[in-house]
Amino acid sequence: AYMHVRKIYFNIYLNLSNTLRSRVCWLNVFTNIIMESKMSAVEFKNSDIDFLVNKVPLLYDHNGNKIVSKKVACLVREDSGVELGTCGMRYMPIQNETIFNFVKNVFTNETEIASIKSFDDGMKNMLFSEELEDLEFLTKSGDRVQKRIFALFSHTAGYSVRFGITERVASCSNVFPTLIKQSAFRVTHDNLSESKLELGKELFQVIREENQVMNNLYTILESHKISGAKDIENIIKASLDIPAKAVIEDLSTRSQNKINAMVSAVESELASKGNNLWGLFNGITYYANHISREAKDLNENQKIFQVHLGSEKYMMNRALSFCKRIANVPDFVEEELY
Fold first, then answer.
1. First to last CA, the chain
2. pLDDT of the residue at 332
3. Where are the alpha helices (DSSP H) in 181-299?
4. CA distances in angstroms from 76 to 61, 96, 125, 152, 337, listed in the order given
5. 137-138 and 144-154 strand pairing
6. Angstrom distance (rounded) from CA 222 to CA 216
7. Which residues pair with 117 in a beta bridge?
8. CA distance 287 to 289
9. 185 with 161: CB under 8 angstroms?
10. What is the pLDDT of residue 29?
11. DSSP label at residue 248
12. Of 32-41, 96-105, 238-247, which range is least confident?
């Protein structure tokens, strides 16, 4: 908060100094104040994750008798009583506010928490940063790829919080996530140790390194020409996890309709981005973000869930792996989120 207020006063100071040269600078003062107020950080209170999680005994019925389990407990929201999952007796729930404060401290001096999303009644949650201009990438053809950091945490995961980058291609609003290596942290319930926090703050150096790897990959994909219809068919099969030798005409009508829709999406992106692997990949991400049957009639939160944690995420991962194989780029096995 101190850094944020200091930044506002610094902008005011600069503009007030410039008034000696021109009265027009007073307009800049108020413009900067308005812009700063729009960029204010999201608060934990009254957000979608402002609730406590309790561990309660798990009961089961045996011959009409209610027996308390000695091995398994339930994780329950205190406000609504909704069950979030089960855990072992030694597990202690990590409260949302603890994770929020940890992420906020990790982001200090780098960015701010700009939005909070909660899924599955609060079992899975994501914190998103503001767009980071220093990570933004511009392809040779002028495609702008915007970047945001996300923090992912769940009340059933084997770690407390995991970080990644949300990649957004501005020309078509295609979004796809990439996880950051060595970004899984366990945070104790009552103690944010200095060592954990320092490791978290070092995360931005890792993020910048991996972001450069992704940017280099985009350049490779853009420069690699495709052979035509066969590559389109192969990437669609790969993204849908259909065997490469399968004959499309032998598939169900539903599958053929989906494939036809994907072909149209791919051809459209190839026409705008060039006859290369970058256009090929963006065709699949366009389908996953905008056309997929699972993505229709969903609210904003549900769409974010699909592309970051749902079936569309895996579709896009398989498509990216296919493109990397064609371009002879070593592939990596992404760790599963849950």
1. 33
2. 56
3. 194-201, 203-223, 229-239, 253-273, 277-286
4. 20, 13, 15, 19, 21
5. antiparallel
6. 10
7. 126
8. 6
9. yes
10. 34
11. G
12. 32-41
Average pLDDT along the chain: 82
Per-residue pLDDT tens over the stretch 132-172 = 999 999 999 899 999 999 999 998 877 788 999 999 999 99
- Distance, CA of 4 to CA of 327 (rounded, Å): 44
Query: How far apart are alpha carbons 71 and 189 in whole angstroms?
Result: 21
The strand pair at 113-119 and 161-169 is best described as unpaired
The answer to whether 269 and 221 are in contact (CB under 8 A) is no
User: pLDDT at position 80, please?
Assistant: 95
For the segment 55-81, the average pLDDT, to the nearest whole number, is: 93
How far apart are alpha carbons 145 and 167 in whole angstroms?
6
Q: Which residues contact 173 (CB under 8 A, 6 or more apart)?
A: 289, 290
Sequence letter at residue 210: E
Q: How far apart are the C-alpha atoms of 279 and 235, rounded to whole Å?
A: 12
**Given pLDDT bands bounded at 50, 70 and 90, which one contains residue 330?**
confident
**pLDDT value at 122 more than 80:** yes
CB 78 within 8 A of CB 175: no
Is the pTM higher than 0.70? The answer reads yes
3-class DSSP state of 43 = coil
d(CA 243, CA 236): 10
Give me the pLDDT at residue 200, please.
72
Say what the pLDDT of residue 197 is.
Answer: 65
Question: Which amino acid is present at 41?
Answer: A
CA-CA distance, 45 to 86, in Å (whole number)?
26
